[in-house]
Amino acid sequence: MDKWIGQGYDGAAVMSGRLRGVRTIISEQYPKAQFVHCVAHVLNLVLAHSCEIPMIRNCIGTIKSVINFFRQSPLRDGLLKKIADQINSSHSTLISLCETRWTEKHVAVERFAEMVPVIRETLGALQDAASSDVATQAYHLQTAMDNSQFIVSLVILRKVFSYTANLNKAMQKVNVDLTNICKYTKTVKTTLLNVRNESQFAILFEQAQQMSSGDIVVPRITGRQTLRNNIAAETAEIYYRRNVFYPFIDHVIAELDARFKPHESTIEGIQMLLPEKTSNDSRIKENLEKIAKTFLGGENEGTIFLSEYEIWHNHWKSVAQKPATVLDAIDNCDDQFFPSIKKLLIILATLPVSTATPERSFSTLKRLKTYLRNKMGDERLTGLALMSVHRDLAVQLDSEEIINQLAIKRKRLNLLF
After folding, report:
1. pLDDT, tens digit (0-9, with 9 covering 90-100), for 269-298
2. What number of other Cβ atoms are within 10 A of residue 162's Cβ?
């Protein structure tokens, strides 16, 4: 336990609380255990708070209502598939919006946007052929979908989610390190800043006009508005650019800045060990010296570590192609010549990034230990879990050999994995 250098959880107070959370209790006993808020959960919070902008929030609510309307009835869902086949749509089913994971909403929003013509035609058919209650619901949903605010918000939401979707996938990888995540996040922020201009929104507005069943119009503007932005504009394009596009982009960027700042602070000093970031700056050396004393103890204090760092810096100074990632730096670090550098690079690589991997094991247990198998023992449960998680190894086992071993054993079956 003395070698514990990192701990990562979601944002729940019982785990991440500053006063009596698990992170605080562990840090009191093991000061080296740096706390890292799960980056996948952080990105989820970024999108959840950014989508509280009224028009974006209403757009998501309408999407959810339409999806539920079709999924609650096999007949309505069947009609949707039938019409999709008639007009040769590439998709025939809608994907449910995840209630908690905002980062998973991208696939559902993308599918919905692609199926807007199919949905619109199906709702129109239901207004003529269905019962009065269903026809009324279909009418209200189609009216909401034909609203200019909904169409423009859908196009904007689809665009922004397309950037965060790949970031979310990168955050859930098993071998990703905190340095790369911070780098990816900065890249996404830079991309969003580059997208935030009139020419980019003009392209999105053109897409909205093509998706809309009529002209894109400006909603009624009053002298005092509290439920949505009310910035006056000469045209519909300018109105939606000022009231939806810019605020949404700015909100996402601000949330990314605020919520990922602690992660950048965690690696601020230690990332200067990377060959492409080494420097002879005195402040950087002082910071690295403190980090070395914290993680490596007395054996690597003071001038010994700083001398090693200077050699490390000069070693890569004349090299054209330097290792860009922590894992590459570890592979190119001689532990005999740079022992302290090697240890700190390993610490940087092993700092927790995401809790996605252990949460996947929770999902596996949920599938295995059902109410029908509630009396299953630990040994059998462990064996089934290993076979499920490491299925690539399980298929390599010799089935004939396993059957032969089972044949000579007692009647009670013991898992041999």
Report:
1. 788 888 888 888 888 877 887 777 777 766
2. 12
Q: CB–CB of 127/139 below 8 Å?
A: yes
pTM over 0.85: no
Query: Residue 344: which residues within 8 A CB-CB, separation 6 or more?
Result: 270, 273, 291, 292, 295, 296
User: Which residues fall within 8 angstroms of residue 297, CB to CB, at 6 or more apart?
Assistant: none
DSSP class per residue in 298-339:
GGG-HHHHHHHHHHHHHHHHT-SS---SHHHHHHT--TTT-H
d(CA 265, CA 45): 19
Both tokens of residue 339? 């022992």
Grouping H, G, I as helix, E, B as strand and the rest as coil, residue 36 is strand
Please report, as a single letter, which amino acid is at residue 310: E
- At 309-328, the pLDDT tens digits run 889 988 888 888 888 888 88
Q: Give me the residue spans of the domains in the chain.
A: 1-37, 46-217+247-265, 274-354, 361-407
